[in-house]
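In response to reviewer comment 3 from the previous cycle, which asked for concrete evidence that the modeling workflow produces usable outputs, we include below a single protein chain processed end to end. The sequence was submitted unchanged, and the resulting structure tokens are shown without manual editing.
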Amino acid sequence: MTGFQLKLLAIITMLIDHIGAIFFPQYGIFKIIGRLAFPIFAFFIAQGYLRTRNVKKYMLRLFIIALISQIPFLYTFREAFGEGFSALNTIFNLLMGLIAIYLYDKSNWKGRQLFIWIFAILSFLLKMDGDITGVFMVYFFYKYHDDFKKLTGRMVILYILYSVFVILYFASMGMPIKMFFTPEGKYMLIQILVQFFALLALIPIKTYNGQKGYNLKYLFYIFYPAHLIILYLIKYLIK
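The workflow returned the following structure tokens.
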């Protein structure tokens, strides 16, 4: 697959995911399909870093899109998850991953992997959509861009460890672990397990041929805030 085809797959699956979250939350298939989107975007952040001539301009572009997208992101997902919803959008998380691998790559310090951990934890604390997994995913796509077997192994471990982390996090908030195996807690456990479908994104990523395909770079930047605004307006008009 060309870069254009992969990015198109990412935005289509993301759109399906968001349509499901806002209009059809009772149907899990939307969420399952949507898990393919983020790993592909993370893959292209790493590819962008490896190929771009000016990393700082690349960071600035992401930051501007993240800022533009934040208000549409909040309004749209408050329609889905309620007025209490508060988080930073996915682009901020991808930007964190990009900054992390930039610092990692430019440092000669033996403990430079700490940069990855710092930005992963910061993403979690700032409640970014993608949080810890997003930053590590960008790092793995950068670190193992020429070793698909190691990349796959690290991604599987990442999702296992993150699942354990989420369960322990809720336990620290006062929710007994055994609650996840009760009818009341089963929904939360399913939401955690659904995340593993993101690993399926490695299949189309493996077919990437290194070619750009159609050069519609700015379409993908514009699409993120634009589709959020459109979904919000549709939901608002329906209400």
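The chain has one domain: 3-238. We consider this sufficient to address the reviewer's concern, and the full set will be provided in the supplementary archive.
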